[in-house]
Amino acid sequence: MDVKTLFATQQYSALKSATEPDPRAAVAASFARITEDFAQTLAAGETTAMGSMYGDADPHALVEALAQSQLAVETAVTVRNRVVEAYQEILRMPV
Prior knowledge:
Layout: H1 3-19, H2 23-53, H3 59-92
Helix pairs in contact: 2-3
């Protein structure tokens, strides 16, 4: 094998990861963003609830914040249930 060919092959293999993104990294980044949004939604609901207890927030804002928090929790539970179902389906697969 020619030295130039070997060098080109090494360079190609080193740069191959830059041309093909790792799908696991994209999934991890997406999951991190989703969990951050979930935490922010719950924190906003708690802040609005505390504000309404002190009389700083109107009741409409409280109801809206509680509805958003409830939707976020229901979504998280649904996603968790789907993940558990997928895991159980994988366990049922014949080897």
